[in-house]
């Protein structure tokens, strides 16, 4: 808290790229309350110690998220049916997986909104066996898992 400079700005930019919003100040290079809350949300999402500090574990997890690292294996794709209007950690994992296979849902916020639906539709359009309906279900899950494993 209180740190300033290019490293803080880089952390803020990376948090936003990882889907954590900084709506008031963005990447202003000042580690204030908004940045601390964003770090804590990120830490909570990935099962890290929630202390608001950007230490080695938080940095490593942030790098894994941004570089498509093995963190996807730690959060298997959810079963069930998800569609526009759904929210929660399962939706975040669907969004992470879509981003990992280059169908960017324009943010990892845990909200199955129009951008997530569009990313699912674009993914589904790659396979004739999938209904191109923007709804994540068992068939879409199976094909997404195949892409993640390849």
Automatic annotation (TrEMBL):
<dbReference type="InterPro" id="IPR002477">
    <property type="entry name" value="Peptidoglycan-bd-like"/>
</dbReference>
<protein>
    <submittedName>
        <fullName>Peptidoglycan-binding protein</fullName>
    </submittedName>
</protein>
<dbReference type="Pfam" id="PF01471">
    <property type="entry name" value="PG_binding_1"/>
</dbReference>
<feature type="domain" description="Peptidoglycan binding-like">
    <location>
        <begin position="5"/>
        <end position="62"/>
    </location>
</feature>
<feature type="domain" description="Peptidoglycan binding-like">
    <location>
        <begin position="88"/>
        <end position="142"/>
    </location>
</feature>
<dbReference type="InterPro" id="IPR036366">
    <property type="entry name" value="PGBDSf"/>
</dbReference>
<dbReference type="InterPro" id="IPR036365">
    <property type="entry name" value="PGBD-like_sf"/>
</dbReference>
<dbReference type="InterPro" id="IPR052905">
    <property type="entry name" value="LD-transpeptidase_YkuD-like"/>
</dbReference>
